[in-house]
């Protein structure tokens, strides 16, 4: 810890945010370039969709394990290793000349992202004292919101300009900068020795999440029917749920080194924050497809115009995040998170009820600014609530669980939105029919956000110090 005290924590946070920005941006930057990739790589629709699926699958599946890797081997070397893998895979992606090679490179990119993802959140709990942690997590949260929104805009400009490979090649200099900044600015805290590794839990959780995410993300493509021989999407999802159920039982009886200590959920703040994280992950990821259809198919805007119109959500998120994080340090996270979720729901609701061919694009931009304020206000305090009352020994596991839940919820949101748009009984070929489908789908996201805001009622009204939650000795030894 001594090195952490001698280090400027804000400088360390800036280094961590570089890598975090990259991995979050790459969840959305590829979508706008898929048609170009399909044409230039002579790929079919199914093949090209795997460029995204491979990244999402290998990003989500190892997250629980990644949270523990930082505890076992040290958060700095694990973060650096993940960033090195991600940067090298980005270079590989940019040089690919076949869709098969690109899918493999994207899968490797996802592994690097998963290794990096839980470390900044755990780092912040050691770099910042409790009274300043909310502001730091506010900056971290605003980076996540801005990155996912900037992705489609930057991807559109790069695909239309120098070409789709630059969507990946642009990561390389940024990744190298992030590696240098992390090496110089982030302290290396010695990992706790004598630690075991939950191999059975690792296999059960990784395979369970892999099957669940695969089934949900690809269900639409296979018509929710057979995938290979007698094996169908329902079987794959069922196996995933079964494996995750066995994983939870194993965590209950593994008293040596549980990957996910169930005592985490004895802290009501962590449980409630995890539910709200799922709600906002579901809604934020699910927002972009109907929004894109509204802007390009209904309002007939060009891709660059549609991308530019999404800027307000990124700007508003970046401004609101740090402010909300600092405010949560003073008044507690419950009210700030709940307000943020309701504001986000109000922004989506405004777009939903006004969706139509005559909708003023500036009205959509204003509503997206409201959405950005809501996501910024909710995201950072939500993370602070999740880990703020936990003992340091549980922070790595908690960060892995929290991020895994949010990521899987995002995949579920993307799938649910796609199904909703197709199931809506309207003439999708007409602008009015498409607008009706978009409006109904966005209202689904509003409902999910209301559920998330209701979960905030279980949070403590005021922030609690970590010492107030003493996990049992067996869990603390993890």
Task: Walk me through what this model shows.
The chain is an all-alpha fold and 478 residues long. It folds into three domains: 1-133 and 144-191, MFS general substrate transporter like domains (Growth Hormone, Chain: A); 198-256; 264-467, Growth Hormone, Chain: A, CATH 1.20.1250. It is built from 21 helices and two strands. Helix 2 (9-25) runs parallel beside helix 9 (130-160) and helix 14 (268-298) runs antiparallel to helix 18 (361-388). The longest helix has 32 residues, at 392-423. The two termini are 19 Å apart. The model is unreliable at 1-5 and 466-478 (pLDDT under 50).
Structural class, please? mainly alpha
Query: What is the chain-wise order of helices and strands?
Result: HHHHHHHHHHHHEEHHHHHHHHH
Total count of helical runs of at least 4 residues: 21
What is the CATH level 1 assignment of the largest domain?
Mainly Alpha
Oligomer: single chain
Instruction: Round the mean pLDDT to the nearest integer and report it.
Output: 83
Quickly give the CATH architecture of the largest domain: Up-down Bundle
Total of domains: 3
Biggest beta-sheet profile: 2 strands, antiparallel
Q: Could you say what the CATH topology of the largest domain is called?
A: Growth Hormone, Chain: A
Question: What is the CATH superfamily classification of the largest domain?
Answer: MFS general substrate transporter like domains
| Binned strand content | under 5%
Gross morphology is globular
> Which ranges are low-confidence, i.e. pLDDT below 50, for 5 or more consecutive residues?
1-5, 466-478
Query: Could you give the count of β-strands?
Result: 2
Identify the strand order in the major beta sheet. 1-2
The portion of residues assigned to helices is: over 70%
From the alpha carbons, calculate the radius of gyration and give it in angstroms.
21 Å
Distance between the amino and carboxyl termini: 19 Å
């Amino acid at each position: 810890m001594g090195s952490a005290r001698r280090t400027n924590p804000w400088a360390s946070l800036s280094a961590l945010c570089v890598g975090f920005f990259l991995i979050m941006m790459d969840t959305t930057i590829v979508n706008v370039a898929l048609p170009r990739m399909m044409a230039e790589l002579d790929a079919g629709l199914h093949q090209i969709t795997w460029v995204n699926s491979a990244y999402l699958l290998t990003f989500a599946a190892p997250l629980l394990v990644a949270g523990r890797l930082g505890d076992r081997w040290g958060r700095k070397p694990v973060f650096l290793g993940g960033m090195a893998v991600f940067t090298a895979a980005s270079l590989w992606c940019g040089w690919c000349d076949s869709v098969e090679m690109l899918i493999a490179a994207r899968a490797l990119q996802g592994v690097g992202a998963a290794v990096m993802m839980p470390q900044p959140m755990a780092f912040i709990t050691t770099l910042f004292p409790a009274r300043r942690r909310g502001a730091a997590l506010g900056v971290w949260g605003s980076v996540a919101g801005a990155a996912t929104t900037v992705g489609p805009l930057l991807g559109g400009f790069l695909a239309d300009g120098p070409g789709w490979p630059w969507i990946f090649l642009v990561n390389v200099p940024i990744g190298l900068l992030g590696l240098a900044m992390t090496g110089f600015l982030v302290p290396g805290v010695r990992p706790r020795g004598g630690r075991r590794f939950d191999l059975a839990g690792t296999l059960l959780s990784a395979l369970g999440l892999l099957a669940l995410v695969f089934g949900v993300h690809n269900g639409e493509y296979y018509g929710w029917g057979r995938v290979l021989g007698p094996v169908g999407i329902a079987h794959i999802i069922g196996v995933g749920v079964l494996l995750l159920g066995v994983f939870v039982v194993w965590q209950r009886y593994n008293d040596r080194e549980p990957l996910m200590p169930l005592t985490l959920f004895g802290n009501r703040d962590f449980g409630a924050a995890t539910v709200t994280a799922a709600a906002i992950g579901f809604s934020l990821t699910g927002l972009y497809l109907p929004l894109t259809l509204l802007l390009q198919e209904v309002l007939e805007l060009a891709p660059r115009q549609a991308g530019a119109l999404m800027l307000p959500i990124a700007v508003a998120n970046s401004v609101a995040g740090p402010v909300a994080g600092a405010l949560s340090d003073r008044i507690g996270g419950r009210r700030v998170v709940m307000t943020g979720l309701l504001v986000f729901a109000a922004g989506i609701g405004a777009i939903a009820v006004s969706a139509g061919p005559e909708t003023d694009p500036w009205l959509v931009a204003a509503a997206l600014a409201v959405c950005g304020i809501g996501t910024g206000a909710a995201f950072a305090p939500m993370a602070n609530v999740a880990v703020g009352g936990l003992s340091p020994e549980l922070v790595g596991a908690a960060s892995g669980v929290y991020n895994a839940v949010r990521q899987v919820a995002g995949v579920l949101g993307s799938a649910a939105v796609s199904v909703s748009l197709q199931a809506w009984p309207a003439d999708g070929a007409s602008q009015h029919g498409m607008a009706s489908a978009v409006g109904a789908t966005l209202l689904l996201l509003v409902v999910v956000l209301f559920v998330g805001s209701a979960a905030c009622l279980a949070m403590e009204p005021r922030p609690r110090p970590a010492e107030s939650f003493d996990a049992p000795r067996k869990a603390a030894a993890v």
